[in-house]
Amino acid sequence: MAVIKSIEDLERIRDQARDLVNLRKDSESKIRVVVGMGTCGIAAGARTAMLAILDELKKRNIDNVIVTETGCIGLCKFEPLVDVIKPGENKVTYVNVNEEKARQIVVKHIINNQIIDEWVIPNI
Amino acid sequence: MKELSLHVLDIVQNSIKAGATLVEIDICEDSKDDLMIIQISDNGKGMDEETVKKLEDPFFTTRTTRKVGLGIPFFAQAAQSCGGDLKVKSELGKGTTVTASFIRSHIDRAPLGSMSDTMVSLIAVNPEMDFVYRHKIDDNEFTFDTREIRNILQEVPLSNPMVLDWIKKYIEDNLIEITGGV
């Protein structure tokens, strides 16, 4: 019974999602968020950071952001690392991103365009 | 790693980098034999025998950004410290299977943790890949297969936030069910 109800829910979500199709399909205008998902990142809490980012984007109805992942870039002691890349701007790398920082990055940087300098490492 | 589900997330990253299009995660818990088995199989590019032999060496990695590769050694250590073992089978061009076994009641066995979080993180950033997650606890079993979900969703991507929410809840509900919860 529960399974059938769930599948019905999924069909309903599909129909809802179709109605809310994002008209801006070109990925060039999208902001990219890259979470470090190497062994070091995962051990340091990258899963929590990523889920917090996804949750905050969902809560605020932000649909011009693509969240992706990358492996270890050799800065293991600063993990979890999160890059924010806005179109036409330099990459910004946040270090030691926990759940709270992840949510702040979405609100301050992605939405309000304010880079949170104290959590950023200089471009490398 | 604090949770075995984080090891799963980590090992699947290897499958993703190996170009897999399908990753199957099988978790089997047997209370009679007091055994827990976690198996991750992919259809990625696979490895030759020589490479497989080097995997458990923490100073072996194909990466160039650093000199260590700890994913497999960590998972192997977790299994070995719980009276279990880790095995890797691989064939070039076919794919790789990683199997870790644990004594289920072993005092040092980390909790499985949130498999729903692991699956959602994997699907959110790899919506074009397919994942199968089977979990068996004694006689109860459940299977989650993104191919079935894709069929229902049609052109709506798996990474849609509402879909991800549904996936999280679906996995959580089913796990409660097979654990014998309410």
Describe this structure in words.
The complex is a heterodimer of chains A (124) and B (182). Chain A is an alpha+beta fold and 124 residues long. Chain A has a single domain (25-121), classed as Glutaredoxin. Helices cover 41% and strands 17% of the residues of chain A. Chain A has 4 helices and 5 strands, in the order H-E-H-H-E-E-E-H-E. Chain A has helices spanning 2-19, 39-44, 46-59, 99-111, and strands at residues 31-36, 65-70, 82-85, 92-94, 120-121. Chain A has a 5-stranded mixed beta sheet with strand order 2-1-3-4-5. In chain A, a hairpin with a 6-residue loop joins strand 3 and strand 4. The longest helix of chain A is centred in the first third of the chain and has 18 residues, at 2-19. Chain B has 182 residues and is of the alpha+beta class. Chain B has one domain: Histidine kinase-like ATPase, C-terminal domain (Heat Shock Protein 90). Chain B has 6 helices and 6 strands, in the order H-E-E-H-H-E-E-H-E-E-H-H. Chain B has a 6-stranded mixed beta sheet with strand order 3-4-2-1-5-6. In chain B, a hairpin with a 3-residue loop joins strand 3 and strand 4. In chain B, helix 1 (4-17) runs antiparallel to helix 3 (71-80), helix 1 (4-17) runs parallel beside helix 4 and helix 4 (115-125) runs antiparallel to helix 6 (161-179). Chains A and B meet through helix 1, helix 2, helix 3 and strand 2 of A and helix 1, helix 4, helix 5 and helix 6 of B.
- Specify the CATH class of chain A: Alpha Beta
**N-C termini distance of chain B:** 29 Å
Coarse shape of chain A: globular
Low-confidence stretches of chain A: none
Domain unit count of chain B: 1
**Based on DSSP secondary structure assignment, what is the total number of beta strands of chain A?**
5
Order of strands, widest sheet of chain A: 2-1-3-4-5
Structural class of chain A: alpha+beta
Can you identify the CATH class of chain B?
Alpha Beta
> Which architecture of chain A does the CATH hierarchy give at level 2?
3-Layer(aba) Sandwich
The pair of chains with the biggest contact is:
A-B, 32 and 36 residues
The CATH homologous superfamily of chain B is named Histidine kinase-like ATPase, C-terminal domain
Indicate the percent of residues in helices of chain A.
Answer: 40-55%
CATH topology term of chain A: Glutaredoxin
Helix content of chain B: 25-40%
Helix/strand order of chain B, N-terminal first: HEEHHEEHEEHH
